[in-house]
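Run log // design_07
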């Protein structure tokens, strides 16, 4: 995807995680814990604490690095993420403005770390094993860039659009926070615990749809093969594929491969209002 180079005046980026020592968290552990988050709906903070308790040599994070220019230029993945964040900010700010809600839009912060530990402001702490997540309390997207290597293995490709899809999905959760959908779903889950997983699936599918909306509104920047990469990534982290049939559909939390691909495809039409119907539980 041909995104413009980032401008640090238009994004909020920091890095809170330290580099892991040799013998720290391994790739296999990252995949296992990421599956716990993506599939079983485990709280990423709880997952991280569990994994961390059995790991040795994980380095504690120091004070957050707020040198945005240095962070964004620290690796190819970081530059790519900053380019994506800038595009997402511009796209969603324009969307909110067009619909008369310009005052409701706020940019999220992107926290990039690698093989370390991160402490959020309101959602606890996590190691790299938690996988990408969004914390509504501090309106921050947390991404351990080493996850992208694992995504390439799971999705079977190393295209940039698969990584943009992950970032755009987490950004979708930020949109849900701004619109109040996240709070609505959490309230409904508290009132009906038996439906909690099904409600979680709706929220995750809407975030997939929002990821598609961003791409759909920037079709002029999409390159051949991008859409296929996104569909492969969405399918690769479907509940049914990751669990291999070992978990019943009633316990799914993010949706099947087909549902996730369908939600992404719906969003690609570029109309975020079509995504709104996914979580209409009124």
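design_07 sequence
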């Amino acid at each position: 995807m041909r995104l413009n180079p980032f401008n640090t005046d238009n994004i909020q980026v920091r890095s809170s995680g330290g580099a892991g020592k040799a013998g720290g968290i391994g790739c296999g552990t990252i995949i296992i814990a990421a599956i716990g988050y993506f599939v079983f709906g485990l709280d990423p903070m709880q997952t991280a604490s569990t994994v961390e308790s059995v790991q040795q040599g994980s380095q504690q994070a120091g004070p957050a690095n707020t040198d945005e220019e240095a962070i964004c230029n620290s690796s190819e993945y970081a530059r790519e993420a900053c380019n994506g964040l800038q595009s997402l900010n511009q796209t969603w700010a324009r969307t909110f403005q067009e619909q008369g809600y310009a005052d409701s839009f706020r940019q999220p912060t992107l926290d990039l770390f690698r093989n370390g530990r991160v402490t959020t402001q309101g959602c606890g702490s996590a190691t790299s094993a938690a996988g990408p997540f969004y914390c509504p309390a501090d309106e921050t997207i947390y991404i351990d860039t080493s996850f992208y290597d694992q995504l390439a293995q799971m999705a079977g490709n190393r295209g940039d659009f698969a990584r943009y899809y992950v970032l755009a999905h987490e950004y979708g959760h930020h949109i849900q926070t701004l619109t109040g959908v996240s709070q609505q779903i959490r309230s409904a889950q508290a009132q009906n615990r038996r439906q909690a997983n099904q409600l979680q699936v709706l929220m995750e599918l809407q975030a997939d749809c929002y990821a598609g909306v961003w791409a759909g509104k920037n079709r002029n920047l999409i390159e051949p093969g991008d859409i296929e990469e996104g569909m492969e990534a969405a399918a690769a982290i479907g509940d049914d594929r990751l669990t291999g049939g070992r978990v019943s559909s009633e316990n799914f939390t993010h949706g099947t491969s087909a549902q996730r691909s369908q939600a992404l495809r719906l969003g690609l039409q570029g109309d975020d209002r079509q995504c709104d119907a996914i979580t209409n539980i009124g």
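The chain has twelve helices and six strands.
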